[in-house]
């Protein structure tokens, strides 16, 4: 099945060119053959009348005369161009030099027309196909009927038609080829606005533009206008969602803060329970608000974050917070770009770096590269790592495998949730450094043009 519009147009045009030129070739060759045969019959008829006017009976009653047909083929033996005059009794006859004393065998049964003429096909010497005309008439005052026969080689007519067809096919093939090539360039030129619009859409998807800009043909401009209107509408929906998320966050944080303040006047045991539950509720509220915010933002098509500057900035921050560790960044070429919000990207990487810094002995390495059209980012440390069972527990919300380390246990689960919202994935495994390797697979935007 032909999937592209340009290929479909080109294929249909090429098919039409081939069918049209084939039909024209057949029509012209058939008409040329008919014209050649008509011309041949007319010349034969004219030469037959010449023979009939040039032959007579002498004083002894014998055939006499010397027809001059002004065609050398009637003088060349075996040419297929013959004439012969004979009486029906076969006692007297004369013929062209080309017949060389031979005879023309006229097939019996061919009917005469009203002018006492008939056409026939016969075989000459060597199986040569002949087309001939016979007429019968009286000579002079005699009551004896004479047969006047003239023939021409049909093979020559066929060769003439074959030459014409070969030349016609060459000309029409060149025409069809030229037509197909011109059509190819016309299709490419005609579909250029669509390709340009596609490139503009790619710019929007990868965050290089917010709308489709430029002038387009009248047939495409309405589609461009509707697409731009849809983008504006989508952005408006996203902004409203962000505003509602912010309002919800504000409305929930205030009552929780009141509960925490009121807990200070409660008994120590009750206060501890209330503060613990308030912290959990705040964490849960913040997590789900973040997920709602991320879900709203990931619906846009203009999010774009350069990876290298973010990783380098986070590495400098973590280096200051952890002066006993070494943080390094390895960026592949071309420098990858994340198809999402910078805030979400930094939150994911920040959580991974904090987790790695807790368990690393001396070194943390970050890498980023394009793989199969995706952004693949990894954070590795040289700590003791995790077993398979521990890896399975690590991404559970609130899980803390080492209670001696500070934290809420939400870091990896938050990273996983954010990655899932972007249709990405978080995987944990053994690093080449010996510790844990956390790998993020995220949607990628193309490099800046």
Total count of helical runs of at least 4 residues:
9
Mean pLDDT figure: 82
Rg is 49 Å
Overall number of structural domains? 3
Q: Note poorly predicted spans.
A: 397-409
Structure report:
With 449 residues, this protein is α+β, with helices and mostly antiparallel strands. It folds into three domains: 5-160; 221-298; 305-445, Heat Shock Protein 90 (2-Layer Sandwich). Helix content is 50%, strand content 18%. The chain is built from nine helices and 14 strands. The chain has helices at 5-54, 154-190, 192-205, 221-263, 268-298, 307-321, 342-359, 388-394, 411-421; strands at 56-57, 63-64, 82-87, 93-95, 117-123, 129-138, 145-153, 305-306, 326-331, 337-338, 363-371, 374-381, 425-430, 436-445. Strands 8, 9, 10, 11, 12, 13 and 14 form a seven-stranded mixed β-sheet that branches. The chain has a five-stranded antiparallel β-sheet with strand order 4-3-7-6-5. Strands 1-2 form a two-stranded antiparallel ribbon. Strand 6 and strand 7 (145-153) form a beta hairpin. Helix 4 packs antiparallel against helix 5. It is rod-shaped. The two termini are 33 Å apart. The model is unreliable at 397-409 (pLDDT under 50).
Keywords:
449 residues; alpha+beta; Heat Shock Protein 90; 7-stranded mixed sheet; 5-stranded antiparallel sheet; rod-shaped
Q: What topology does this entry show?
A:
Layout lengths: L4 H50 L1 E2 L5 E2 L17 E6 L5 E3 L21 E7 L5 E10 L6 E9 H37 L1 H14 L15 H43 L4 H31 L6 E2 H15 L4 E6 L5 E2 L3 H18 L3 E9 L2 E8 L6 H7 L16 H11 L3 E6 L5 E10 L4
Parallel strand pairs: 9-11
Antiparallel strand pairs: 1-2, 3-4, 3-7, 5-6, 6-7, 8-10, 10-14, 11-12, 12-14, 13-14
